[in-house]
Amino acid sequence: MRKFLMLTIAACILAAPALAIQIYTYEWADGDADYLGTFDNTMNTMVSTLCNRPSSDGHGLLLEKAVASGGYARGFLASVWGLQDGDEVSFSCWRYDAAGGLPYFRLWAHYNNMLEEAADARGQDMQINDGDLFGNNDFGSQSGWEQFSWTWTISGGNTGLIIDAIVYGAQLATIYVDDIAIVVPDHASVRFPNIIYPSGGIPTGTEAQTWTAVKAIFQ
């Protein structure tokens, strides 16, 4: 079964006021939906047993570049809405690459302010791009399992964010991802492939942690 966790935490950073945040984690399981979409059908995906982290439930998400042209394919792993200027969204996932060199993986994001219009995520237009934020441009070791993470700061009056998995390589180039985690302010809502967490939702578990401990998840 799908495994998930949400923690509501009050964290103090230096002299700043208490910050209420939520942490959600997600891993793919047999029968789960695969992803939230892509631009221009550039990526194929499926829930796969071919490669999974030893700590996971036996499945991972296969990302396959569907087009032969150069550049990259982009697949949507999660979305967040109800954001405000100055909010931070931190995201982490594990990537598997069988060998060094191509294909390459990056973790980016882009704004999608239409997400705000459908709080339950039905009818959300996933094809809107209100501006790229980019993110982790490091290709990493390019071999085996490796954790990728990034923190984006919301600005410009934007309210919605989509997390992007980026795959470079030839047509049918394949990368696997699994075990994702996201930290958002408690007034934001989060959507994974088949789960929606409304803002301020009732947590499945709570634990008091320092902000340093939380940030350590993404290092």
Q: On the 0-100 scale, what is the average pLDDT?
A: 79
**Helix percentage:** under 10%
Q: Uncertain regions: pLDDT < 50 for 5+ in a row?
A: 1-18, 203-219
What is the assigned CATH homologous superfamily?
Answer: Galactose-binding domain-like
Can you tell me the overall shape? globular
Distance between the termini: 27 Å
Task: Report the C-alpha radius of gyration, rounded.
Answer: 17 Å
SSE topology string: EEEEEEEEEEEEEH
> What is the fold-level CATH name, i.e. the topology?
Jelly Rolls
The total count of helices amounts to 1
CATH class: Mainly Beta
Oligomer kind: single chain
Major sheet characteristics: 7 strands, antiparallel
In percent, how much strand structure appears in the residues?
35-45%
Query: CATH architecture, please?
Result: Sandwich
Domains, number: 1
Q: What structural class results from the helix and strand content? A: mainly beta
Number of strands: 13
Care to give the gist of this entry?
The protein has one helix at residues 211-216, and strands at 4-11, 19-26, 37-38, 43-48, 60-65, 72-81, 88-97, 104-111, 144-153, 160-168, 174-185, 189-192, 195-197. With 219 residues, it is an all-beta fold.
What report would you give on this structure?
The chain has 219 residues and is mainly beta. Strands 1, 2, 4, 5, 7, 9 and 11 form a seven-stranded antiparallel sheet that branches. Strands 3, 6, 8, 10, 12 and 13 form a six-stranded antiparallel sheet that branches. The model is unreliable at 1-18 and 203-219 (pLDDT under 50). It has one helix at residues 211-216; strands spanning 4-11, 19-26, 37-38, 43-48, 60-65, 72-81, 88-97, 104-111, 144-153, 160-168, 174-185, 189-192, 195-197. 3% of the residues lie in helices and 44% in strands. The protein has one domain: Sandwich (Jelly Rolls). The protein is built from one helix and 13 strands, in the order E-E-E-E-E-E-E-E-E-E-E-E-E-H.
